[in-house]
Every structure is written in C-alpha cells, then in structure tokens.
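FORM 7B: Structural annotation worksheet

SECTION A. Query
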Amino acid sequence: MRDRLLRIGSSLVQHGPDSDRVYVMRIAPGDVRLVLDEAESLATRNSYGKIVVKARASDFGELARRGYRVEAVVPRFHEGGESGLFAGKFLEAGRATPRDPRIQEVVEAGRAAHARALAETGPDDRPGSSVEPPTSPAAMSNGGGMPRGEVVVVDEAGPEDLDELAACYAEVFESYPFPIEDPAHLRAEREHGTRFFTARDHGRLVGASSMEPAGPPGVVEMTDFATLPSHRKRGIATDLLALMGRHAREAGVRVAYTIARAGSFGMNITFGRRGYRYAGTLINNTWIGGAIESMNVWYKILEDQS
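SECTION B. Predicted structure
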C-alpha cells in the first residue's frame, strides 16, 4: 500500500506502512503543536516505527520536549536565515540503530569528494563538469567519465517526455516512496512546480532526475535520480546535477538539498563533488529498493554565488 498524503491546515504529512513512518514534510508556522499531536496520533494508531519532521530551528524546544532528536541541519533553509531541521522520533526497538555498516564510510567518501572539488575549482557549482547547452553535440561527451565516442545529452524534460521518464523509473527502482513510475503522478508533480531532467544516449532516455520545490520559497530538493543499468558509472548523475544547479541559480534558488541513500557511494560522492555539504543521516527512514534504508542529507547554499 502506497504512503498517503494528509493536509493539516497549511501543513503536509505523509504516512504509510511502506516506510513505516509519519513524515511531516511541511509544517506551517504556528501549527507545530497541532501537527505534532496529529503525527503522533497517526503513528500510535498505525503502530508506525518512526516519525520524522522537517522543521525550523526555532521548533527545537518543542521537538526535544516530545522526545525527538535532530538528525540533520540545513543552514539558511528558512526565510531570515533560520536553519531547517530534520528531527526523528523512534517508536520501536531497534529502529534507531543503523542497519548498514557502511554509512560512515560513505559519508567520508562524499566529504573527501567535496574537499577535492573545492581545492580544484573553488566553492561554486561548476566542479568537475563543463555542461554545454543541450543542443550542442558535445554536451556531456566524455564530460562525466564516459568513453570517447559516446554522446549523452542532458536537457530539461517537457510534458512529452513523462511517459518515458516513468518507464525509466519503473525499470530502475524496485520500490520508491512516491509513485514515480506512474506518468499521471509525474504530470501532477510537474503542474505543482517540479522540473524533470533527462539524459539521452543517441535519443534513448537513459537517465533522469528532478528538482522539486520542497520547503519555503527559494528551496528545492534535487531528487529522483535514476540511470539505466547499461549506463551506470559513466557520470550521468553528475552531469544532470550540474545542469540542475545551473537552472536553480537562474531561478534564484537560495538552498538546494538532497536526501540520498546512505549506503550509495555513487550518489553521495556525486553530491560531494558538486560542492554539497553533509547535513546528517536520517536513520532507517525511507522504503526504497525493497527495504527501509537510512538516508544522508546534503545541502548547498546558492544565493551568494555568481
């Protein structure tokens, strides 16, 4: 059964048995106690193992009083420079204990990639890539570690691409917390401001990603990265992220962040290489790839960059 979305006033909550959690995705100022009361009631009624809340730094006192612990912090997430928090409350024995022994190793690999990128090119969104306009035949040609002679073109998706995008997601993911294998879901997301991106090899769609409004104005989540098995380890995610970063700056985005699988060296290194900083780990948080996995949060401040 898919996780469900519930609106509480101007706040948004996701819950369901797949991720075995309640996720407060957006909490409106002044609604903190009301929303937390409802989230905790949902968790109790459904015997969920975790509640995770995306909140403001100023909500910390109320969260701590209720037994939540801060799992990740994203600076300047909210207007006025206030940090954003991801806070978790664990409701079943063992849920707070990481199940993947590689998490710290993955984080250190991502941090090392970040340090190398800064040392080589400085703190902007251009390390490791020279993304050209999507109409250029050289776009992504050998720019992400691809064999010479192969050309993969990255571009922003249009409505005509959504059926192919959904098919790509269906092939790549055994399970996912949102129904991204459904073209109707992608169309609805696009209508609400999500921007999708594609990577094509001689016209065939081989990779995808999205940039989703996921917080206050000026904040986006870089998410839904997928590469067909036949095209992995060729830098496609890196080049998609580079293009998304360019579009984000042009749109005046203040902060970009991602929630990446904590056991995935590739995606964590990709974000580190693009100048993202590690914010924390959401333990046993998300149903993806057929299991509940821990997720790493990475962020990048864009508003001061030229």
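SECTION C. Observations
Residues 4-90 form a domain with the Aminopeptidase fold (CATH 3.40.630.30). Residues 31 and 79 are 17 Å apart (CA to CA).

SECTION D. Sign-off
Analyst initials: ____
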